[in-house]
Write a structure and sequence with these properties.
This protein has helices at about 15-25, 30-35, 40-65, 70-75, 85-100, 105-115, 120-130, 150-165, 165-170, 180-195, 200-210, 215-230, 235-245, 250-265, 270-280, 285-295, 305-315. It is built from 17 helices and no strands. By secondary structure, the protein is mainly alpha-helical.
Length: about 325
C-alpha cells in the first residue's frame, strides 16, 4: 500500500467521515486471491479471511468513531474469537492518527488503558501503522510498556509479509528496520506466513527454508503464535507443522505459549489454541498461559532485552 498523506480537516465536514474517506481500508484488501495468497485450502482461507475482516472492521470503526467508549462497545460486538483482531485494527488506526498528528498523541495510549485485556494485539496493531509510514524505529510514544513494546515491531513485520509477500517472503528481501528490533520483526513476518500460505504446513516450511538460517528461529516462533491464535488448521496439519519444525521446535512452541498468554488474558481461548498447546507444547491452554506468566516474573524491565529474555526463558523451561 502507498504511503498515506496527511489530509487536513475542512470545516463543515465531520472529522470521522473525512478520515474514513481518506484513510479507510476496503474489505477487499484482505481477500486472499487479491493478495496472491494460497487459495486451494477453502476452510483455512474462509477462517483466516474472517480474521482479516474483523481487523478491517476494527480499523474502519476507529477512524469513523471519535468517542472511545462507543468504539469499545462496537469492538465488543464482534464474535468473541475475533475481538483481538478487531482491537488490533482499531489500534492501527489510532496509532496512525497519532503519528500523522504528532502534536497530539492521546488516542492509542487511551486504547491501551481502556482495553488492557487486548494489550498484546493493541501493540501489534500499532506496528501496522509504523509499517504504513515506512518507519525504521519504534516511536517513543509506542514504547510505554517496558516488556511488550517489541510487539510493535512484530506488527510491522506482519504488515510487510501480508501486503508485500513477493518481496518480503518469496524473495526474502530484508526490510529496512532497526537492528534492535529485527528479531521481533521476523516473528511478525513468520505470523504473516500463516496467512500467505493459508495454514499449509508444507508451504510454510518451504517458505522458511528460503530465508537465511539466522532468521529462521524467529520465523518459526511467529508461525507458532499464528497457529495457536488465528487458527485455521486441523489436528493433522498442526501435528505436521510440529514435525516439520525439526530442530526449531522450541521456537515454534514459544510462539504457541505467547498465543496462549494473549488468548488467556483476553479471556477468549479457542479450540485452535487448545489443539496447538496440546500437540506442540504437550500442555493445556491454562498451563501454557501460566508458563508465560511465570517466566515473565522478575524480568529486568529496565533492560532493552527484557522481551528477548522472556522468550529465552520460555524456550528454556519448555521441554
Amino acid at each position: 500500500m502507498a504511503l498515506i498523506p496527511v489530509i487536513p480537516v475542512r470545516s463543515g465536514v465531520r472529522q470521522g467521515q473525512l478520515l474514513f474517506t481518506a484513510l479507510g481500508i476496503a474489505d477487499a484488501e484482505v481477500d486472499f486471491e487479491r493478495r496472491g495468497f494460497v487459495t486451494y485450502r477453502p476452510s483455512a482461507r474462509w477462517h483466516l479471511e474472517r480474521a482479516g475482516g474483523a481487523f478491517v472492521h476494527g480499523y474502519n470503526c476507529a477512524l469513523a468513531e471519535s468517542d472511545l467508549d462507543a468504539l469499545l462497545g462496537t469492538l465488543s460486538d464482534v464474535d468473541a474469537d475475533l475481538t483481538g483482531f478487531a482491537h488490533e485494527g482499531a489500534a492501527m488506526a489510532l496509532a496512525l492518527l497519532d503519528l500523522l498528528t504528532f502534536w497530539r498523541r492521546p488516542r492509542w495510549r487511551r486504547l491501551v488503558e481502556a482495553a488492557p485485556r487486548h494489550v498484546y494485539l493493541i501493540h501489534v496493531g500499532a506496528g501496522w501503522a509504523m509499517a504504513r509510514l515506512y518507519l525504521r524505529r519504534v516511536p517513543a510514544f509506542l514504547r510505554i510498556d517496558p516488556l511488550l513494546w517489541p510487539l510493535v515491531a512484530d506488527g510491522c513485520g506482519f504488515h510487510h509479509g501480508f501486503f508485500d509477500p513477493n518481496r518480503a517472503i518469496r524473495r526474502t528481501v530484508p526490510a529496512r528496520i532497526s537492528a534492535a528490533v529485527r528479531t521481533n520483526f521476523d516473528q511478525g513476518l513468520g505470523r504473516s506466513l500463516w496467512f500467505v500460505c493459508a495454514a499449509d504446513p508444507q508451504a510454510i516450511a518451504r517458505a522458511i527454508e528460503r530465508f537465511a538460517p539466522e532468521r529462521q528461529d524467529d520465523l518459526w516462533s511467529g508461525v507458532g503464535l499464528a497457529c495457536a491464535f488465528a487458527g485455521g488448521a486441523e489436528v493433522p496439519a498442526i501435528a505436521a507443522l510440529r514435525d516439520l519444525a525439526g530442530p526449531r521446535l522450541l521456537h515454534l512452541a514459544q510462539g504457541v505459549v505467547f498465543a496462549a498468554a494473549a488468548r488467556g488474558r483476553a479471556g477468549n481461548p479457542t479450540a485452535a489454541t487448545d489443539a496447538a498447546c496440546r500437540l506442540i507444547c504437550g500442555m493445556t491452554v491454562d498451563e501454557a498461559a501460566a508458563l508465560a506468566e511465570e517466566t515473565a516474573h522478575a524480568l529486568d524491565l529496565c533492560s532493552e532485552g527484557a522481551y528477548e529474555e522472556w522468550r529465552r526463558r520460555i524456550r528454556q523451561r519448555w521441554r
